[in-house]
């Protein structure tokens, strides 16, 4: 297995291009199942999770081609041969569950294995099931698979989610596009990836309003067309690389970045003493003097502080002046990076969903192990700021969500290399 060797070497300066959003692409790809006509995505990120979704769609009989070095994904679901999402693929990635709503809407049936993904909590499917049942689906769990059917087709309904789940919102919205009548989804998630999905569905002929607010209204149509859609910028990759100059010092421009994608995160950086400014081509982040100051963080659904940036923010707080409290409210088991950061000399105490971090003057390089996608990149950030060498193993987690991480960080002056495994 490959590992990444990072040697802390001072301030970073230059530009980093930000890719299209993994989490948007993973919901846009299953949208192809809603239509017989081709759907083409541009600005797609080159990631192993995208390959997993490609394999899943192909296993259903969809045609999926990767063009222009993976930045364009051309899909067609003209004829599908299966409505079963197999455990062998689904266990690799939770987002595989996003084929459930589209398959059910177009074919009146779907069999989807309960998902896997990062080991960051229980992550059940009850909110997806409740929403689809409100649209008239009958769903039962048998042998680890959700068996869903809607023999007479789905019917629009008013449904309020108990929690604003991102994936459940995506599944319910996609299913409702082909349901008979109007669906009103209340307490919907407001993430930019959902706005991106709705923009694409609208290009395909769907009638939807209210995306980006907590009430989304969908007027069902008989069929959807093909479309071409550009994937929105990855706000988590953006936030992650915004932390590189924050933790190492220097000034880095994140190309393609937009303030509206990372507002609550940028506010925290500002409070910590890191400046964030919009430029013509993106966002410029600078830490020019002294240590950052400790700030408290509570993770929340968008527009709150994203759980997917909590691990990386903790790496920054490890080197801050003062004590910060990080409260994780989205996932119950998302501090697995804390013991690894402690191996690098960090001072962190975890009690349930709260981590108290007292900043130290400097971290020390160490061998550490990535335990999930965002945890792995937090260890790289910590390594960039540490004295000496840090080896981050189990890099396959990183490949799920960050393309060309070595090239991007080398481009701003970091000392980082990928070591090939046996
Ligand atoms: C998506 C993102 C993930 C991010 C998360 C929260 C994708 C591919 N992944 O995941 O990177 O960390 O949003 O911003 O977009 N829950 C239930 N029942 C359900 C569904 C969810 O209890 O039926 C719980 C989960 O266990 C979790 C919380 O709700 O504690 C948030 O999950 P959700 O918003 O659904 O996240 P995902 O869509 O899986």
Descriptors for this entry?
single chain, 422 residues, alpha/beta, UDP-n-acetylglucosamine1-carboxyvinyl-transferase, Chain, four-stranded mixed sheet, 14 helices, 30% helix, binds uridine-diphosphate-N-acetylglucosamine
Tell me what the structure shows.
- The protein has 422 residues and is α/β, with parallel strands linked by helices.
- It has two domains: 3-19 and 233-419, Enolpyruvate transferase domain (UDP-n-acetylglucosamine1-carboxyvinyl-transferase, Chain, Alpha-beta prism), CATH 3.65.10; 22-230, Enolpyruvate transferase domain (UDP-n-acetylglucosamine1-carboxyvinyl-transferase, Chain, Alpha-beta prism).
- Helices cover 30% and strands 26% of the residues.
- It is built from 14 helices and 24 strands.
- The chain has helices at residues 22-28, 48-59, 87-90, 100-107, 126-134, 166-177, 192-203, 235-248, 263-272, 310-317, 337-343, 373-385, 396-401, 405-410; strands at 3-7, 12-17, 39-42, 63-67, 72-76, 84-85, 109-113, 138-142, 145-149, 158-160, 182-186, 207-209, 215-219, 227-230, 250-255, 275-278, 282-287, 297-298, 323-327, 347-351, 354-358, 367-369, 389-393, 415-419.
- It has a four-stranded mixed β-sheet with strand order 22-23-1-24. The chain has a four-stranded mixed β-sheet with strand order 2-15-17-16, with helices on one face.
- A hairpin with a 3-residue loop joins strand 16 and strand 17.
- Helix 5 (126-134) packs parallel to helix 6 (166-177) and helix 6 (166-177) runs parallel beside helix 7 (192-203).
- The chain is elongated.
- The termini are close together.
- The model has no long low-confidence stretch (mean pLDDT 95).
- Bound molecules: uridine-diphosphate-N-acetylglucosamine.
- Uridine-diphosphate-N-acetylglucosamine is lined by residues 23, 26, 94-95, 121-128, 163, 165-168, 193, 307-308, 330-331.
């Amino acid at each position: 297995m490959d590992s990444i060797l990072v040697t802390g070497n001072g301030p970073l300066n230059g530009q980093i291009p930000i890719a299209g959003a993994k989490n948007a692409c993973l919901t846009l790809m299953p949208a192809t199942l809603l239509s017989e006509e081709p759907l083409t995505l541009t600005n797609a990120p080159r990631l192993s999770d995208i390959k997993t979704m490609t394999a899943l769609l192909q296993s259903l009989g969809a045609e999926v081609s990767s063009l222009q070095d993976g930045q364009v994904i051309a899909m067609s679901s003209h004829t599908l041969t299966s409505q079963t999402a197999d455990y062998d693929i689904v266990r690799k990635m939770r987002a595989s569950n996003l084929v459930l709503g589209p398959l059910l809407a177009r074919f009146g049936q779907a069999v989807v294995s309960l998902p896997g993904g990062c080991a960051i909590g229980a992550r059940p499917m009850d909110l997806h099931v409740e929403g689809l049942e409100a649209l008239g689906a009958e769903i039962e769990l048998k042998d680890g698979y959700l068996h869903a059917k809607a023999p007479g087709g789905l019917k629009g309904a008013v449904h309020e989610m108990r929690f604003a789940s991102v994936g459940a919102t995506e599944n319910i919205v996609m299913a409702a596009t082909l349901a008979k009548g109007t669906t009103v989804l209340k307490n919907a998630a407001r993430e930019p990836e959902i706005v991106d999905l709705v923009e694409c569905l609208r290009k395909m002929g769907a009638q939807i309003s209210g995306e980006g607010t907590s009430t989304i209204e969908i007027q069902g149509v008989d069929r959807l067309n093909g479309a071409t859609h550009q994937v929105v910028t990855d706000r988590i990759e953006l936030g992650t690389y915004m932390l590189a100059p924050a933790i190492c010092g220097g000034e880095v421009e994140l190309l393609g970045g937009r303030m509206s994608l990372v507002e609550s995160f940028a506010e925290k950086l500002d409070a910590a003493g890191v400046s964030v400014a919009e430029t013509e081509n993106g966002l410029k982040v600078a830490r020019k003097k002294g240590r950052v100051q400790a700030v408290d963080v509570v993770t929340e659904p968008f527009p709150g502080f994203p759980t997917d940036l909590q691990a990386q923010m903790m790496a920054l707080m490890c080197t801050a002046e003062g004590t910060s409290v990080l409260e994780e409210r989205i996932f119950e088991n998302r501090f697995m990076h804390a013991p690894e950061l402690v191996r690098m000399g960090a001072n962190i105490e975890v009690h349930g969903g709260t981590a108290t971090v007292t900043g130290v003057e400097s971290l020390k390089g160490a061998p550490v192990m990535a335990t999930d996608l965002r945890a792995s990149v937090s260890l790289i950030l910590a390594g960039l700021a540490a004295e000496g060498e840090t080896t981050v193993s189990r890099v396959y987690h990183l490949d799920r969500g960050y393309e060309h991480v070595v090239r991007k960080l080398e481009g701003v002056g970091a000392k980082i290399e990928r070591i090939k495994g046996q």
